[in-house]
Design brief:
Number of strands: 12
Helix content: 25-40%
Oligomer: single chain
Low-confidence stretches: none
Protein name: 3-oxoacyl-ACP synthase
Largest sheet: 10 strands, mixed
Strand order of the largest sheet: 4-3-5-7-1-8-12-11-9-10
CATH superfamily of the largest domain: Thiolase/Chalcone synthase
CATH class of the largest domain: Alpha Beta
Pfam families: ketoacyl-synt
GO molecular function, one term: 3-oxoacyl-[acyl-carrier-protein] synthase activity
Keywords: Transferase
Order of helices and strands: EEHHEHHHEHEHEEEHEHEHHEE
Organism: Pseudotamlana haliotis
Length: 354
């Protein structure tokens, strides 16, 4: 089986991560219950006339995917695999609103066509002129990891050489209100820098698009090696440390081998305890980081954590703003990522320097 490398990364998020030269230095300390992305210059990547007709999720994805492909030094990729929890949510809401407002008559199909979950993958393929394998995973908060695992299996077996993998989700007004009604969103605005101090139920929501070129060919500029990905739909909190230990052991590592643990804390007092059992027990003596105070919570927010870990391994530097404890590693060789959402869809991802 061939090794799998992360050859390029690109992120459109609630921070200015589209600037590849910076690494979380010019920060925005949002104070809200929902944080939108910081928009890049879309005109530099998409003709203005075309951009006006595109949903936000599509625009974010096209920019991020083009940035990733350019950084990898490629003109084309063999496959495109995307993960999204809600797809092009705004167009879905627009179509349903028009359906109601027009009494189910005289509807234009545009919003419906652009509302499907695989629209992003299709639009990115059209922009890149990629006619290869194109698949979209819609597995709630495991959507990105599902895409990642698919890409890893294909690259390791030699079926493809270069695959573009992305995690995308956007905010929709109506759906966000429903999330508020069921208590998934914090009731009061919270400063992102003080998210873990809030001690209240619900999360601060966000959106974003994070794309990566994975390859079985190592480059001088490669960020990291993807060792393994493992997902669990259900996992009792008490079993998280044992499961993490088994995951590491299956890949030839132990907890002592991990230089950095990246955890998906989102400030929800009801479910952050799933991370506490790793933070305070198994990895109590390991340097730790978190990221959802910067990106917000959404179904593919873990792709932002993947971006963060990749950047740390290449630059051998961890920004102060993501540090969860005061322990310092002498260097970053192996990173473990763990994410879950509301006690479900747990995932473990293991990266190391290449």
């Amino acid at each position: 089986m061939k090794k799998v490398y992360i050859n390029s990364i690109a992120s459109i998020s609630a921070q200015k991560t589209f600037d590849q030269a910076e690494f979380l230095t010019d920060l925005i300390d949002h104070e809200a219950i929902v944080i939108p992305v910081v928009n890049p210059n879309y005109k530099a990547f998409i003709p203005p006339a075309a951009a006006r007709r595109m949903a936000k999720g599509i625009k974010m994805s096209i920019v991020a995917s083009k940035m990733a492909v350019q950084e990898a030094g490629l003109e084309q990729v063999d496959a495109i695999i995307t993960g999204t929890g809600m797809g092009c949510l705004r167009d879905s809401e627009k179509f349903l609103s028009n359906l109601i407002d027009n009494d189910e008559q005289y509807l234009t199909p545009t919003s419906f066509i652009q509302s499907t979950h695989n629209t992003v993958g299709g639009q990115v393929a059209l922009e890149l002129k990629c006619k290869g394998y194109n698949f979209t995973y819609v597995h709630s908060s495991n959507s990105f990891e599902s895409a990642l695992l698919d890409a890893k299996l294909q690259l390791a077996s030699g079926e493809e050489d270069d695959i573009l993998v992305g995690g995308i989700d956007e905010i929709g007004d109506h759906t966000f209100k429903l999330q508020e009604l069921v208590g998934h969103v914090k009731r009061e605005a919270v400063k992102t820098s003080e998210l873990l101090k809030s001690k209240t139920s619900g999360a601060v929501f966000g959106e974003g698009a994070n794309f990566f070129v994975l390859s079985n060919k190592k480059q001088a500029s490669s960020y990291a090696e993807l060792i393994a990905v493992k997902m669990f739909n259900t996992l009792p909190k008490i079993s998280v440390p044992e499961t993490a230990t088994a995951f590491l052991a299956n890949n030839g590592f132990s907890a002592e081998d991990i230089d950095l643990v990246v955890l998906g804390y989102n400030g929800d007092v009801d479910y952050d305890s799933c991370y506490d059992v790793l933070s305070h027990e198994l990895f109590n003596d390991t340097q730790q980081a978190y990221y959802k105070h910067l990106s917000g919570e959404f179904n593919t927010a873990s792709s932002f954590g993947f971006w963060l870990a990749s950047k740390v391994l290449k630059l051998q530097s961890l920004p102060e703003v993501v540090k969860l404890n005061d322990i310092k590693s002498s260097g970053f060789k192996t990173v473990l990522l763990y994410n879950q959402y509301r006690g479900e869809n747990h995932s473990f991802t293991l990266l190391k320097t290449c």
